[in-house]
Amino acid sequence: MRDQRYTDEEVIAAFAQERPDIVIDPNFVVRVREKLSTKNAFIFKRAYMQKKWFAFGCVGLAAVVLVVWGVLTPERTLGAELVYVEGAVLYRTGGGVWQEADVDTGLREGDGVKIIGEGKAIILLDDGSAVRLNNDSEATLAALDPEHMQVVNEHGQVYTRVVKAKRLFDVAVNDTIYRSLGTAYMTVNTDETQGVEVYESAVAVITSENSQEEETVVPEGSAYYEVHVEAPATVGEVTVLEAAAVKADEFVTWNQDEDTEIASVQDEVEPKEEEKIAEEAATVVREETKNEVVAVKEEVKEQVQEIKKETKDVIVAMKQEAKELQAAATPGVSTVSRITLTADAPEPGHVSWAVDGNLALGMDRGVRVLFSKTPNPTLGSSLALPVGWKNYSKIWPKEGTGTYYVRVCEFLGDTCGTYSNEVTVTVIGSGATGEYFDKSAGEWKSNRSANGPAASSVSSITLTADSPEREHVSWIVNGTIVQGMDRGVRVLFSKTPNPTLGSSLALPVGYKNFSKIWPKEGTGTYYVRVCEYLGANTCGTYSNEVTVNLVAPG
Question: Which of 474, 458, 437, 445 is nearest to 539 (CA)?
Answer without folding.
Answer: 458
